[in-house]
Amino acid sequence: MHILRPKRSGLSIDMTPMIDVVFQLLIFFMLSSSFLTPSIRLLLPKAVTGDNRLTPRLIVSVDKSGQIFLNTERIDSEALQTVLESRLGEDPQRAVCVRGDEEMPYRLFVEVVDAARRAGARQINVLHQGRPQ
Question: What does each C-alpha distance from 119 to 72, 94, 105, 106 come to in angstroms?
Answer without folding.
Answer: 19, 12, 22, 20
